[in-house]
Structure formats: C-alpha cells, structure tokens
Amino acid sequence: MLKQMHHILIIDDNEDILFMLKAMLEMKGYLITPKDSPENIELFIEKSLPDLILMDMLLSGADGREVCRNIKMNQAIAHIPIIMISALPDANISCVEAGTDYFLGKPFEMIDLFDTVEKALFPIII
To answer: Closest by alpha carbon to 54, among 28, 87, 80?
Structure first.
C-alpha cells in the first residue's frame, strides 16, 4: 500500500547516491525531485514547496550546512524539515548547529532512512 504522496527534495552531487535514494523512496510511494546541485535552491524550494528536504552535507562547491542555514533563515521555507546526511565523523553536531532537523551518518541502513523520513514527515507531538 502506498503512502499519501509526499514530495521529497533530494540534494546530492553523487549521481549514484541520488539515483539510489530516489529509487528507494519512490518504491515507498514518495514523489521525489532530485537535484545534483544547490544552485538557486532557495528559489526552487519556494516554488516547489517540498514536504521534506534530504541533503548531503558536502556538495560540490557548497557546504550543505550553509545551505541549511539559509533555508532556515528564509521564513517562506523555514518550516520544511531537513535531513542531512554525511560520512564525516561527528558531523551531526555541526549539522544540528546549522539547523538541520535530523541527521543520518553514512553508511546507513535503508530502514534507518525510512524511519527518519517517517519521523520528519509525521512528527509525534506531545
């Protein structure tokens, strides 16, 4: 059974990872928009308004943490949850400081990706 169609923007400069993440999340019923560059990303996000952003911390020519800060400072899109992924040790600390809502360390299991996406899209409010 497919979930309600949620739009996820994936930003990663590694084509293989981008393809794999897109394929796995589409199999779970999500609408995926892949981007291999953060160029003009804030304007793109404002126009497309994804439900979730999944982004690599290190992007060609850009730092995902800075991209995250800019998104979170833009009131029109600051509400969109961001999952940051990275293979760097202890990157979670600097990613959280940059404003990311969730962090996944590489390598990660697909079940962990799916669980984190679910938490981001359907947070439990107490």
So the answer is: 80
